[in-house]
Design brief:
globular, 0% strand
């Protein structure tokens, strides 16, 4: 396996788990009613993080699966349609790739979570799935976008750079 291939795999694993953790913290805090309490999200307790770590353990695997099946390809295609690294700022192209990936991964993971948590675990009727899914996307998309842009991606680039001691993917 080439160094670039190993670097790409490492980047993908770290990014998948960074996104899964951030989204699980957000959704766990909402499910626990933190956003409704005095102080809003500032009222979170450490139990939010423990619960998020547990859910991240398997949701991260699903993120890896779906991002490798279609999320990364869509993100790369979106960026390729709107910029060329040879002509445009490479950072701008990277941001477009991230945005394109979030645009497909958020609905994908929202559907997965809707099926898993609402239909299978909570026993809601399948006939409610379209409304549950759309509501989940509306709730998750802003967080997924900003978490990716300002936390998960910078963190993943930093860690991958430290591991490989060179410019990250």
């Amino acid at each position: 396996m080439s160094g670039k291939k190993l670097q790409g795999i490492t980047f993908g694993i770290i990014m998948s788990y960074a996104m899964a953790f951030g989204m699980e913290v957000y959704n766990t805090a909402i499910n626990q009613g933190c956003h409704l309490a005095d102080g809003s999200f500032s009222s979170m307790t450490n139990s939010v993080f423990l619960h998020a770590l547990i859910e991240m353990s398997y949701m991260g695997l699903l993120v890896i699966l779906f991002s490798n099946l279609w999320g990364n390809r869509f993100g790369a295609a979106f960026a390729a349609r709107h910029c060329a690294p040879s002509n445009d700022n490479p950072y701008f192209c990277r941001i477009l790739r991230q945005a394109g990936t979030v645009a497909v991964m958020c609905p994908t993971m929202s559907l997965t979570a809707s099926i898993l948590f609402n239909i299978i675990m909570a026993g809601m009727p399948v006939s409610r799935l379209p409304a549950i899914w759309i509501g989940t996307v509306l709730k998750n998309f802003p967080m997924a976008f900003f978490w990716n842009m300002f936390a998960a991606a910078p963190f993943t680039h930093w860690v991958t750079g430290k591991i490989f001691r060179e410019k990250t993917v």
